[in-house]
Amino acid sequence: MKLEINEKGWSRLDNVGNLFPAVQSDRITGLFRLSAILDHEPLKGLVQEALDRILPRFPYFNVEVVENLFWHTFVPARHPLLVLPDSANPNLPLSRDAPSRHPMRVRLYKTRLSIEFHHALTDGTGALTFLRALLAEYFYLYGIDCADYGDIPRPGSAVHPHEAEDSYATLPYDPDIPLPPTRSRAFQHPGRMLPRGQYRATLGFVPLDLALARAKERGLTLTEFLIGVLFLAWQEVFFQVKAQGKKPSGPLRLYIPINLRKLYESKTLLNFFMTIPLELDPRLGEWSPEEVFEKVHHFMQIEVNARSIRQQINGNLRGVVLPLVRLLPLVLKKLFLRMFYHVGEKEQTSALSNMGAVRMPREIEPHIHRFEFLPPPSPGTRIAASVISFRNVLSIGFGRIAEGAFVEAAFFRRLREYGLPVKIETNTPKEESWRSAPVAASSSTTT
Amino acid sequence: MAFCPRCGVQLDNDVRFCPLDGTPIPLLEGDSTQTLAPWPAADPLAKKYLSAAEVRDRVLIILSGLILLPIFIVLAVDFYTTGGSEGGSLSWSLTVSWILICSFLYLLFGFNLYHAFLPVTLSYVGITAALLIGLDFLDVHEDWFFNLGLPILLALGIILVMNYLFILKTRRKGYNVFGSITVSIAVFLLTLDALIMVYLRGRILFSWSLLTSFALFPIALYFFLLHYGLRRNLDLGRTFHF
After folding, report:
1. Which residues of A fall within a CB distance of 8 Å from B10?
2. Does B84 contact A at CB distance below 8 Å?
3. CB–CB of A428 and B19 under 8 A?
4. Same domain, A101 and A248
5. Which residue of A has its CA nearest to B52?
6. Is the pLDDT of residue A416 over 90?
7. Pairwise pLDDT comparison (B234 vs A285), residue with the higher score
8. Considering A163, A188, A213, which residue would you say is the last residue of a domain?
9. Domain end position, chosen among A135, A163, A191
10. How many CB pairs under 8 A join A and B?
11. How would you classify the pairing of strands A383-390 and A350-358?
């Protein structure tokens, strides 16, 4: 199904995109951020010019979200997309009261150029393609022309007919496929929620070659290795909570987004991903690192297959294709979707999303220090992790909206124990107290 | 380069406490250079208060709970008290529940479509029709919805929409808005009177509505005259000064 926004004047949101505007709130912003750290401070005017030149190449991103009787839809943007100054707290909500409903923001602070995308519009792959195109155009205007831009879209280049395809629609709902199993409540971040409008970003930078070597020593992929380390960090928190005499609420369950483009040979730049749950239950006793890595490795090998993923997609589609659901007005759909969303979030401990390695043209690469990726905030899981790498820098970002940096602390401490040097950057105010153990999470916030 | 002595992560030179575990980072001699701040200090978009949309959502959830919870209570009370000692049937609670469900729908559509007059009017007409047809169905003595309830509702809906369209289309809004509203009230009262008479006596008769219309039409005429008949930018102080 193609999104013919320029011909019809509107387009549908895809299967995943439909969910996010409906559940959006001041806490669930649906925004994730991709940033590039350059070797110089770019001029705002030049970035704006690059944005103005590249945005028409992506007509399906130059849209606004509007409410209709039954669903949200995209309409062509009525307002220009402006480069904004950055905020101390990334991924803050898009204003629901503002006249403009552009579901993305371009932000600039010193050497960092960031794009915050709403999940209604696209996933990490689409966002990264846009950021790479914006950077290439910026450097072109800056005076660096490349001999070969590879797969980076350039202004005026032809739009691939399947770029704006709703690829979920190529997998029709099959009532014969059983629904995915319902899951119990999971163990979650024990800290209290931060004040509204605050988002703690903690970024750790690790040499990619060393991290790959550590993973390879254990016969793991980099994603499997990082998932294993994250499980070990959460296990540490789990037993800290237990040591206080509190009963942990359930097992550890991490949700891992899987890019479906390779699996289904799609070229879409809209959403096309699916999350799969990985579970570790420390209520059965403490798992050794070897056991955790082995479990993660085998699970990823067994569960990441077309059949299991098709079952998950089919389960999601069920909520969209049922006639009763389709006929419900959007005001009622929003009410029910929010309820289901909150119930679903209780099944998750956290999430880890790996964007993989970013490639830029040879001439541009020396002018970019690294890429950064920050996940969307979520009041249910309260903390999520995201990974991206560029050249030899592996960037691991944690986005948190609850008090206490104990998950990040345990994670990066583990990496140090594996002999990986870690450089930390955070947006946490210097006056804020830090807690290394959840024991203090229920006490006062001041030092 | 600064390092946390406890967890070993590398930090910016100007960091005095480890952001992961709070360990104090000693200031090394000759290490006072400020590194590039990774995040802006000011936060132009941060807000600690709820947005108007968030407040609306929360009020809606609370009011929905206050409306929907009694439904279960009255159904349970009716179920266990009606039908003699054995219980097991529902009577009066169905009417109450239906009124509460429709009240919830009024609330839901009003909160979500408050900014759009036409959709809110049409949805309210639809909900009212559902409310009346439900009450008619539950009322075993009379059959009044299709003969009386629906015509009144349609008349009200048409008059409201026409009034809205008039106000929307008029270029200069002023006293003519009051005039249009007054005419709409008068027309609705005439229609209401006629429909009730048709239901009761089988033919169109006007009784009390003639009196109310007689009073309302001159008022509407006055408003229209004030708006269209007099000059623009009328200085009332100068015209009526004494």
Report:
1. 421-424
2. no
3. yes
4. no
5. A97
6. yes
7. A285
8. A163
9. A163
10. 119
11. parallel
Q: Tens digit of pLDDT for each residue in B18-43?
A: 888 888 877 665 554 444 557 887 66
Whether residue A155 is found in the same domain as residue A267: no
A96, B51: Cβ pair inside 8 Å?
yes
Quick one: A141 and A210 in the same domain?
A: no
Assess whether pLDDT exceeds 70 at residue A302: yes
Smallest CA–CA distance from B105 into chain A, residue: A332
Would A12 be classed as within a structural domain? yes
User: Are A95 and A210 within one domain?
Assistant: no
**pLDDT digit string (tens) for A99-130?**
557 899 999 999 999 999 999 999 999 999 99
pLDDT at res. A6: 47
Report whether A159 contacts A359 (CB < 8 A).
Answer: no
Q: Which residues constitute the domain of residue A286? A: 200-440
Give, in degrees to the nearest 5, the angle at Cα A354 between A111 and A148. Answer: 60
* pLDDT surpasses 50 at A326: yes
Chain A residues with CB-CB distance to B7 below 8 A: 409, 412-413, 416
Chain A: residue nearest B46 by CA? A197
- Note whether A96 and A232 are same-domain residues: no
ipTM for the predicted complex: 0.72
> Residue A221: its pLDDT value, please?
96
Residue of A nearest to B3 (CA): A423
Show the tokens assigned to A266: 């799609």
Domain assignment present for A175: no
pLDDT score recorded for residue A172: 80
* Rounded average pLDDT over B197-216: 88
pLDDT band (50, 70, 90) for residue A437: very low
pLDDT value, residue A100: 57
> Residue A3 pLDDT more than 80?
no
Least confident window among A50-59, A154-163, B18-27, B67-76: B18-27
Provide CB contacts within 8 A for B25, sequence distance 6+. B2, B3, B4, B5, B11, B15, B16, B17, B18
Contacts of A68 in chain B (CB under 8 A): none
Rg of chain B, C-alpha, whole Å: 33
Cβ–Cβ of B39/A109 closer than 8 Å?
yes
| DSSP notation for A342-406 | HHHHTT-SEEEEEEEEE---TTTGGGEEEEEEEPPP-TTT-EEEEEEEETTEEEEEEEE-BS--H
Tokens of A156: 């005026």
A424 to chain B, minimum CA–CA distance in Å?
5
* Cβ within 8 Å, pair A422-B10: yes
Query: Does residue A420 fall inside a structural domain?
Result: yes
Count of domains for chain A: 2
Residue A149: how many CB atoms within 10 A of its CB?
A: 19
Answer whether B44 sits within 8 Å of A85, measured CB to CB.
Answer: yes
Question: Residue A257 falls within a domain, yes or no?
Answer: yes
Residues of A in contact with B119 (CB under 8 A): 69
Instruction: Report which of residues B87 and B94 the model is more confident about.
Output: B94
Q: Which residue has the higher pLDDT, B19 or A138?
A: A138
Question: What residues contact residue A233 under an 8 Å CB cut-off, 6+ apart?
Answer: A407, A410, A411, A413, A414
At how many degrees (to 10) do helices B150-169 and B175-201 cross?
A: 160
Amino acid at the residue B134: G
Look at residue A125 in the predicted model and tell me its pLDDT.
95
CATH assignment of the domain containing A361: 3.30.559.30
A137 and A225 in one domain? no
Pull the structure tokens for residue B71: 């439904």
Residues B53-80 have a mean pLDDT of 85
A233 lies in the same domain as A155: no
Q: Say yes or no: A288 and A152 in one domain.
A: no
The average confidence (pLDDT) of chain B is 81
DSSP symbols for A283-324:
GG-PPPHHHHHHHHHHHHHHHSSHHHHHHHHHHHHHHHH-HH
